[in-house]
Amino acid sequence: MENLPDNVVPIQQPLVLVDGKPYQELPEDLYIPPDALEVFLETFEGPLDLLLYLIKHQNLDILDIPVLKITEQYIEYIDMMQNLRMELAAEYLVMAAMLAEIKSKMLLPRQVEESADEEDPRAELIRRLQEYERFKRAADDIDALPRLYRDNYLATAELVVDKIDKPLPDVELDAILIAFQDVLKRAEKFSHHQIQREPLSVRERMSRILATLSGDAEGFFAFHCFFTMEEGKSGAVVTFLALLELCKEGLVEIVQGEPLSEVWVKPIVE
Amino acid sequence: MDIKDILEASLFAASEPLSIMELQGLFLLEDRPDKHRVREAINLLQAEYKAKPIELIETASGYRFQVKSKYSSWVARLWEEKPVKYSRALLETLAIIAYQQPATRGEIEEIRGVAVSTNIIRTLEERSWIRVIGHKEVPGRPALYASTKEFLDYFNLQTLGDLPPLSSLLDIDLLPSRDVQLNLGDETPTKRDVKDDEKTPPPEPLTENIQ
Amino acid sequence: MDIKDILEASLFAASEPLSIMELQGLFLLEDRPDKHRVREAINLLQAEYKAKPIELIETASGYRFQVKSKYSSWVARLWEEKPVKYSRALLETLAIIAYQQPATRGEIEEIRGVAVSTNIIRTLEERSWIRVIGHKEVPGRPALYASTKEFLDYFNLQTLGDLPPLSSLLDIDLLPSRDVQLNLGDETPTKRDVKDDEKTPPPEPLTENIQ
Lengths: 270, 211, 211
Fold this sequence. Notes:
CATH class of the largest domain in chain B: Mainly Alpha
Largest sheet of chain B: 3 strands, antiparallel
Oligomer: heterotrimer
Number of domains of chain B: 2
CATH architecture of the largest domain in chain B: Orthogonal Bundle
Radius of gyration of chain A: 45 Å
Structural class of chain A: mainly alpha
Helix content of chain B: 40-55%
CATH superfamily of the largest domain in chain B: Winged helix-like DNA-binding domain superfamily/Winged helix DNA-binding domain
Distance between the termini of chain B: 90 Å
Shape of chain A: rod-shaped
Distance between the termini of chain A: 89 Å
Order of helices and strands of chain A: EEHHHHHHHHEHEE
Largest sheet of chain A: 3 strands, antiparallel
Order of helices and strands of chain B: HHHEEHHEHHEEHHHH
Number of strands of chain B: 5
Largest interface: A-C, 67 and 70 residues
Structural class of chain B: alpha+beta
């Protein structure tokens, strides 16, 4: 395993007490250079990773972990880190507790007539270790896959064009009606002002009158210019209503020389 | 490894034109080709791509692969944007102008309760669906917007009067029971029936006026 | 104009893989080739580029031209930054999501035995390698993560099935508790036992006592 840096410098001084016995030098497995200790929790991806390291390092079969030995090593590891005042992540302590529990179960004398369905206390741990190990491998496999911007690079050629067409969005007529309905409903909720709904023909006529007038700011237009004979009476009425509306909004001025004479319309200019 | 292949790979991978010097820089000092050899390899590559739809050209800052111009009309379709959808704000603005015209921006904002972005107005003008038909004689002389003939054409309408009448649809909301009643009749209710059109000169007796 | 040339030009111009459908979309309706013809042209192109330093490959979202891996050490010099190295924590998280998807954060933590940092999830999401595809109907409704097409594209894969196979779990068939047996031994543990080097071929029967 290449988890620990290779450039290991032996420490002479610090002794570690394991089970009350002083160790003159750290067992090689447990040996961590001071620099590595700083990053210990980053070096291992967690308690499972550490445990796998300990197992691998001794070439042990994952299905046949000598729980006692591994547990002791693990706990030594943790003790040592605590001696060095390393803050230990809770996960490591949980694992230590789990190992201790398995160890204690293994030590209990076994009843011969032990019920068959009682699981070996190691089973759960081994299942988790195996599960973790396969994803650890999968992670290495994924890392080894050729990937963009490390192993492969896009091969592209430049395209020189002046203009790219941009299609315009389509709108359904219904969408406009629904939008307007929504606006009105919303407006009615806060409305201080009531929105008037003139017949659209009046609104349309107002626009048309304004459009005609805007063509000639100085000019006067006769009332009858704004509708045609074919439109009949209703045309005249709509135009009249439109003019009243425009007048009210201060958009046009209506002038009549004398009663019953021609009505003239004039845009208001400053 | 062939110099030409390395240059070809790099020219395709680079996002900018590469100068002869930059191309030399791809190689470690000990096997760095001289300018002459780089140029030679480039000439070979240029010849190889003669018959291809892309070419290796020299620009001010170096060499790059580009698509031959005769293919650009096809290739440009890659960037044809999918038509986006208009925003709700835009549709509402358009609807207010259509139904309440002529309207100033201030009036639209008052009805919508929020500011109308300049972008929306510009988009609608660019589409020729609205235009300024005058200015309101109030301080600031705000532009008055109205819908256009193009707007009517787009929606296949003769006049604004052909816009779906609002009142009847609002009524439907208020009278949810009517649909149920209509089911009893023998005529299938259609939207057309519900929309009593103001143009229809004498309002015919509506069959669904049962309540 | 030859279909193959148009496809070739477009594949070089695109910055993303192009699907067969997108390639068909380059042509106007009246002269749009069917899928079969597009695929045929692609096969021809792939053969043409066999001997070149670039290749036309198929990934999850379509076809793209890319520089062959063996040129990466030269091409990498075009960029000042070294290619990103991803942490083991990130790769393990990605692997669990890729192989076990959809997976919740809790499930990932269960397998890894440690908390998954929010940073890792965020990085993976920002890279568009994973995304939330729903929520598990358990208390807290945790997000369910799955891998994306972009993930497959990035790693030159067409489908999840192309991922290297996940090693299978060995049957847990535990040997009769050896530790207890060992208890009967009388040898004291030696340093030698603890230092059992990984190079030592078969694990020797362990001899140490329990303290």
